[in-house]
Design brief:
The chain contains 27 helices and 23 strands. It is an alpha+beta fold. Strand 10 (about 485-490), helix 13 and strand 11 (about 505-510) form a beta-alpha-beta unit. The two termini are about 70 Å apart.
Length: about 1050
C-alpha cells in the first residue's frame, strides 16, 4: 500500500537559503565598471541614473536590473530563445556603447558576482559567480563558494584578469548549469520576481506578473504566477502525485481483474476444446464406416469396367484389317500415272518457245512505236528550223557572229558615254546646291566643316561685291583668297580647331557676329572687311586693263574671269547653264543606247537564223531514214504475231495436261492419307483407339488391384452379393456419394477441434499452460498436417487420389487427438479447482483498493487545502496592502478543475474582482483603469512573495516604476513596499527616472545613481551612492570593493564612506 506524505508545507531553500543579497559586482557587463555595489539588507534600493543628455536614459539601469534578476534566477529570463542568447547581450558591446576605440572591443565573456549573507554572520557568507559567454553554446555557467569572494585591482583590465583567475580556481563545489542553478541555489520557489521591459534583448519581452501596463492575465496563467511566487508548486505537484498513486492502485486492481478474466476465458476455451475433441472422436468412427462402403463399391465398379474394355479390343482389331485392304487398292492406281518429271519437262519446253516468240514480237512493236515518236519530233523540228532560216536567207554563221560582236561593242560604248554624262550631272548638282547654301567655291569644304560644329562663317568672295569697271583688278587681287573664310571673334578659337583639318585655308576674324551672314563689303566703303580690302589695295596696283602686280613680292596676277569670282548669283546661273547642257547631252547618249540595243537584238536573231539553215539539212536526211524503217517494220510485226499465237496454244495444252495428271495424283494421295489418318473410322484412329483401349484395360486391372488392396477384399463375388442384399446400387454415383459422405463427416470431426469452417481456421488446441511437452517443430507439424487434411476434405479433386485405407486418410486427425487430448480428464478437474481460488483472491484485492482510495483522497484534499489556504492568506495580505494605498479590496476567487489526466496537475484559476463599497463588483477582465491593474499586479506579487514559508531574502525588482504610475500612487506604493520589505526581510529594487527619485527616495534604505558623463566615454563613471545605516562589520568587509575605480582621496574608512548615512530626498551624489 502507498505510504502517505504528511500535509506539512516545507520549502527547500537551496544552497543560499534565506541569506539576502548584500553586494553585487559586475565585470564587463554593459558599460558598468567593476566597482562593487552594496545592497541594503531589507528595504528599498532606489536605482536612478544620469546619462550623457538630459535625464537618465543611457546610464545602464536596465542592464543592472537585468544582471541582478538573472543572477537571482528570475524565471522570466527563460524567453522563447532561451536564457543564454539573451543573457549574452548583457556583455559590453562596443557598437551599443558607440565607441570606436579598438581598446574597447566586444567582451567575449563577463561576470556577475553576488555575495549573500545573514545580517550578523559574516563568516557564513556565500558568494555566487556567474560567467556569461558570447560565443559558447553553454552561454551561462555558475560556480559558488563559501565566504566573501570579490575582485580588486588598480584598473578595469587588472580586475578583469583577476576575475578570470578567481573563476578558474572556483573548483571546490560542483559547477551549475543554466537549467539547474536557480533551483540548486534558491530552491524551487522563485527567489526573485521582476519587471524589466526586455531582458538582454528586445525579443525577450517581460511576460510575468509584474509586466506593468500589460493586459489582464488569463485566469490559469494568473493562478500559476501566484502559486509559483508563493512557493506552492510542490503542493500542486504532491496532489498530482497522489492522483497518480491512486490511478496506479486502481490500475493494479483492474489489471488483476483483467488477468483473472483472461485466465477464465483461456480456461473456458480449454474446456470447450476438450469437449470438441470428444465430439471429434465420435465423428471419426462414423466417417470410417462410410469410407469402407466407398472402397467396396469402388472395387466392384472397377472390376466391371475392366471386363467391358476386353470386349472393345476384339471389335477394334477386325475393323483395322478391313481398312488396310482399301488402302492397298488406291496405291495401285497411283503407281500407273505418268511421272511428274516427264510432264514438267514437256511443259517447260513449250513455255520457253512461247516466251521467245512473245519477246521477239514485243521488240518489234517497241521499235515501231519509237520510230513513230521520232518521226513526229523530226517533222516538228524541221518546221521550226524552216521558220528561223527564213529570217536571214543567204547569211553564213561566221558573218552573223561578226555582226553580233560589232553590235555588242557599240552597246558598251553607248553605256559608258551615258554613265559619264550622268556622273557630270550629279557633280554639277552638288555644286549647285553648295553654291545656293553658301558653301560653294574653293571655301566650300571648310564652310561645311565649320557648319557641322555650329560655327557661323562665310566665304570672303561671297561677302565682297564689286562694280563692273573695277571687277577685273579686284578679282585678280582676291583670287589667292578665294578659299578664305570669315568668322566672328567669339568663334575664333573653335574655328582654328576645325580648320586645322583643312590646311591652307585662310581665316579672317571680324567683330560683329550678328551681321556676319547678311553683311557685304565693297572696296572704298566701310564694312566688315574694310581693313582687309584697304591693305590688299595698298599692296597691289593695277597694271593694264586686267592685271595687278605686287612689287614687294614680284607677283603678277591676271583677272577677267568669265564667271564673276565674287558674284554668287552669277556662279549659280553658270552652274544651271552647265546642268542644262549636260541634260541635253544625256538625252543624246540615252538615244544612242537604245539604238545599240536594237542593233544587238537584230544581230542575235540573224545568228540564230544562220544556225537554223545548217541544222535543217541534217534534220531532213534523218526524216528520210525514219520513214524507210517504218515501212519495213510493218511486215515483220505481222509475222511475229503469228509465231507468238501458235506457241501460246502449245504452251496451254502442255499446262492443262500437267495440271490434270497432277490433280488425279493429289486426289489419290489424299484418299490414301485419309484412309491412313486418325479421323473417325480411319486406320490411324482405329489403331490409336485400340492402343488406348488396351492401355485402359491394363490400367484398369491395376485399378482393380489397388481398390481390392485398399478395401482388403479377398472374394469379389461374396462382396457383390453383400451389396446386393443391402439394396445398394452398384454404380459410380453411389460410390462417390459414400466417398463424399465419409469426407463430410471427417471434415466435421476436424472442424470440431478447429473451431469454425471459415477460411482463416485456427487450431483449438490446449492452452499454453497445458500443452504437452514437445518441440515447436512437433506442434507446428501436427497443426500443419491437420490443416492439410481439412483442405483435402473440401478439395473437388480429392476423389482421384483417395483409393487408400481410412487409417491412412485420417492419420493426421488421430495423431493430433492422441497428442493434445492425452490428459483431457485430468486438465478438466484442475480448471474447475483454480476458478474457485481466483475468485477468493479478487474479492480480497477489491477490499484493499477501496481502503487505499479513501486514504489517498484524504491526502489530496490536504494538498488542495494548503493551496486554498495560501490563496486566502495572499488575498488577506493583498487587501491589507491595498488598504494602505487607499484602494478598494479585491476578491481572488480561486477555482480548480480536474483535467482527468494524471500526467497534468489540477487546473487552478483566479478570477479577481474589485469590491467597491456599495457598488457592483468589477471584473478583473475589465479593470477600471491601467493604474488599478498595475497596482493590483504589483501588490499581488508582493503578497505572494511574503506568503511563502520563508520570504526572507526574496527580491522584488521594478524597472521604470515612475513611468507606469502617477506621482501620488508611486509614493503610496513605495511606502507600502518599504513597510513590507522591513517586516518580511525582502529586498525591493525600484528603478526610476530622476524626475521621480524624490518620491521614492524618502522611503528608500539606499540609493545609487549610475553615471555616464559623456557619450564618448566607453564606460560609466563609478556610481554615486547614498546609503542608510549599516552594520560596521559589513562595511568593513566590503569597503575595499566599494571604492574600486574611484579617484584618489575618496573615503577609505567606514566613518568617511557614503554608506554610513541615511538617504534623504534631494541627495545627489555622496561619492564621485
Amino acid at each position: 500500500m502507498t505510504v502517505p506524505t504528511l500535509p506539512i508545507d516545507v520549502e527547500d531553500l537551496g544552497i543560499v537559503g534565506p541569506r539576502p543579497l548584500r553586494a553585487l559586482q559586475l565585470v564587463r557587463i554593459g558599460r558598468h565598471t567593476s566597482t562593487a555595489m552594496l545592497i541594503p539588507r531589507d528595504g528599498i534600493w532606489v536605482v536612478s541614473g544620469r546619462g550623457p543628455e538630459t535625464g537618465s536614459n543611457g546610464a545602464g539601469k536596465t542592464v543592472l536590473l537585468g544582471a541582478m534578476s538573472l543572477h537571482n534566477g528570475d524565471p522570466q529570463w527563460r524567453g522563447d530563445n532561451g536564457v543564454g542568447p539573451s543573457a549574452a547581450r548583457l556583455l559590453f558591446d562596443h557598437n551599443r556603447a558607440r565607441v570606436g576605440d579598438v581598446r574597447y572591443a566586444d567582451a567575449p565573456h563577463g561576470y556577475i558576482a553576488g555575495v549573500y549573507l545573514h545580517p550578523d554572520r559574516l563568516d557564513d557568507a556565500v558568494t555566487v559567480w556567474m560567467r556569461i559567454e558570447r560565443h559558447s553554446s553553454t552561454y551561462i555557467q555558475v560556480r559558488w563558494s563559501r565566504g566573501i569572494l570579490l575582485v580588486e585591482g588598480d584598473s578595469e583590465e587588472a580586475r578583469v584578469a583577476r576575475a578570470n583567475h578567481v573563476w578558474s580556481n572556483l573548483r571546490e563545489n560542483e559547477p551549475l548549469t543554466v537549467t539547474t542553478y536557480a533551483e540548486r541555489l534558491f530552491g524551487k520557489t522563485p527567489r526573485c520576481v521582476a519587471y524589466i521591459r526586455a531582458r538582454g534583448s528586445e525579443e525577450n519581452q517581460d511576460r510575468g506578473l509584474l509586466a506593468l501596463g500589460q493586459r489582464p492575465f488569463r485566469p490559469k496563467d494568473l493562478a500559476t504566477q501566484v502559486i509559483t511566487l508563493a512557493g506552492k508548486l510542490q503542493a500542486v505537484e504532491n496532489e498530482r502525485k497522489f492522483r497518480q498513486d491512486l490511478d496506479a492502485s486502481e490500475s493494479q486492481l483492474a489489471s488483476k481483474k483483467a488477468d483473472h478474466q483472461f485466465q477464465y476465458q483461456r480456461e473456458e476455451q480449454e474446456l470447450r476444446d476438450i469437449g470438441a475433441r470428444r465430439t471429434s472422436r465420435k465423428l471419426l468412427q462414423n466417417a470410417a464406416e462410410s469410407w469402407q462402403l466407398y472402397l467396396t463399391l469402388g472395387t466392384l465398379v472397377a472390376n466391371s469396367n475392366s471386363e467391358d474394355l476386353a470386349h472393345k479390343i476384339t471389335k477394334l482389331e477386325s475393323d483395322i484389317n478391313d481398312k488396310k485392304q482399301e488402302i492397298a487398292n488406291a496405291e495401285g492406281e497411283l503407281s500407273n500415272l505418268p511421272s511428274r518429271e516427264d510432264l514438267f519437262r514437256e511443259l517447260d519446253n513449250a513455255r520457253k518457245t512461247h516466251g521467245a516468240a512473245e519477246r521477239a514480237k514485243e521488240d518489234l512493236l517497241k521499235e515501231s512505236g519509237s520510230i513513230a515518236t521520232k518521226l513526229t519530233g523530226c517533222e516538228e523540228k524541221i518546221r521550226n528550223l524552216r521558220k528561223a532560216a527564213a529570217l536571214a536567207p543567204g547569211l553564213s554563221v561566221p558573218d552573223a557572229e561578226l555582226k553580233l560582236d560589232e553590235a555588242r561593242r557599240a552597246g558598251r560604248t553607248a553605256d559608258r558615254q551615258a554613265e559619264r554624262v550622268q556622273e557630270s550631272i550629279e557633280n554639277a548638282g552638288l555644286r549647285f546646291e553648295e553654291l545656293r547654301a553658301g558653301r560653294g567655291g574653293p571655301a566650300g569644304p571648310a564652310l561645311s566643316a565649320l557648319g557641322a560644329e555650329h560655327i557661323a562663317a562665310v566665304s570672303v568672295i561671297d561677302v565682297v561685291t564689286l562694280d563692273d569697271d573695277a571687277r577685273a583688278h579686284w578679282e585678280a587681287r582676291l583670287s589667292p583668297y578665294a578659299n578664305a573664310v570669315v568668322v566672328a571673334r567669339a568663334d575664333h578659337q573653335r574655328a582654328r580647331a576645325v580648320l586645322a583639318d583643312h590646311p591652307g585655308t585662310p581665316l579672317l576674324v571680324v567683330g560683329d557676329k550678328e551681321n556676319l551672314v547678311t553683311a557685304k563689303a565693297q572696296p572704298g566703303e566701310d564694312g566688315i572687311l574694310t581693313r582687309f580690302l584697304q591693305e590688299l589695295e595698298r599692296r597691289t596696283r593695277a597694271d593694264g586693263p586686267d592685271w595687278i602686280t605686287d612689287p614687294g613680292l614680284a607677283l603678277e596676277i591676271p583677272g577677267g574671269y568669265d564667271i564673276p569670282l565674287t558674284d554668287r548669283q552669277a556662279a549659280v546661273q553658270a552652274v544651271e547653264k552647265e546642268l542644262a547642257g549636260l541634260k541635253a547631252e544625256l538625252e543624246v547618249a540615252e538615244q544612242a543606247q537604245r539604238e545599240a540595243e536594237e542593233r544587238l537584238t537584230t544581230a542575235t536573231n540573224q545568228l540564230t537564223a544562220a544556225k537554223a539553215t545548217v541544222e535543217l539539212a541534217v534534220a531532213e536526211a534523218e526524216l528520210d531514214a525514219l520513214q524507210s524503217r517504218e515501212r519495213e517494220l510493218a511486215g515483220l510485226v505481222d509475222e511475229a504475231k503469228e509465231r507468238e499465237s501458235s506457241a501460246a496454244d502449245v504452251s496451254r495444252d502442255a499446262d492443262d495436261k500437267y495440271k490434270n495428271v497432277d490433280k488425279e495424283r493429289r486426289e489419290l494421295g489424299a484418299k490414301i492419307r485419309q484412309l491412313r489418318s486418325d479421323q473417325t473410322g480411319c486406320l490411324g484412329e482405329l489403331l490409336e483407339r485400340v492402343a488406348v483401349v488396351r492401355e485402359q484395360g491394363r490400367i484398369q486391372k491395376g485399378v482393380v488391384d489397388r481398390w481390392r488392396q485398399a478395401a482388403e477384399l479377398a472374394d469379389l463375388r461374396r462382396a457383390s452379393l453383400d451389396i446386393a442384399n443391402a439394396a445398394i446400387t452398384l454404380d459410380d454415383s453411389t460410390r462417390d456419394a459414400y466417398f463424399h459422405e465419409a469426407r463430410s463427416v471427417l471434415r466435421q470431426a476436424i472442424e470440431a477441434v478447429l473451431g469454425n469452417t471459415s477460411d482463416s481456421l485456427r487450431v483449438a488446441g490446449p492452452s499454453a499452460d497445458s500443452v504437452p511437452a514437445g518441440s515447436d517443430e512437433l506442434h507446428a507439424g501436427l497443426n500443419s498436417r491437420l490443416h492439410t487434411l481439412h483442405k483435402w476434405c473440401d478439395d473437388s479433386r480429392a476423389l482421384t487420389e483417395s483409393v487408400r485405407p481410412f487409417d491412412g486418410v485420417s492419420r493426421p486427425l488421430r495423431a493430433w487427438l492422441d497428442w493434445y487430448g492425452v490428459e483431457d480428464d485430468v486438465r478438466e478437474e484442475q480448471i474447475l479447482a483454480n476458478r474457485k481460488k481466483n475468485e477468493r483472491e479478487i474479492e480480497a484485492a477489491e477490499t484493499q483498493t477501496a481502503e487505499t482510495r479513501r486514504w489517498i483522497n484524504s491526502l489530496r484534499d490536504n494538498q488542495i487545502a494548503i493551496i486554498t489556504q495560501s490563496f486566502r492568506d495572499i488575498e488577506s495580505k493583498l487587501n491589507e496592502l491595498l488598504a494602505a494605498v487607499h484602494r478598494d479590496p479585491v476578491s481572488l476567487r480561486p477555482r480548480y478543475s480536474d483535467l482527468n489526466d494524471t500526467s497534468q496537475p489540477l487546473r487552478w484559476e483566479l478570477h479577481p474582482q474589485w469590491l467597491p463599497p456599495g457598488a457592483k463588483p468589477v471584473e478583473y477582465s475589465n479593470p477600471p483603469n491601467t493604474a488599478e491593474l498595475i497596482i493590483l499586479h504589483t501588490l499581488l506579487a508582493t503578497a505572494s512573495l511574503v506568503a511563502a514559508t520563508s520570504p526572507q531574502g526574496r527580491m522584488l525588482i521594478l524597472d521604470e516604476s515612475g513611468n507606469n504610475l502617477d506621482g501620488p500612487n508611486l509614493t503610496r506604493v513605495s511606502a507600502v513596499l518599504q513597510q513590507v520589505a522591513k517586516r518580511y526581510g525582502l529586498t525591493v529594487v525600484l528603478a526610476c527616472q530622476d524626475l521621480y527619485t524624490d518620491r521614492v527616495a524618502r522611503h528608500g534604505a539606499a540609493m545609487i545613481q549610475l553615471l555616464r558623463p559623456s557619450p564618448r566615454d566607453p564606460l560609466n563613471a563609478p556610481p554615486a551612492v547614498s546609503h542608510g545605516d549599516e552594520e560596521a562589520a559589513v562595511l568593513e568587509a566590503f569597503l575595499p570593493y566599494l571604492n574600486l575605480g574611484r579617484p584618489e582621496g575618496t573615503a577609505t574608512s567606514v566613518e568617511g564612506s557614503p554608506y554610513s548615512g541615511t538617504p534623504r530626498r534631494g541627495d545627489d551624489v555622496a561619492v564621485r
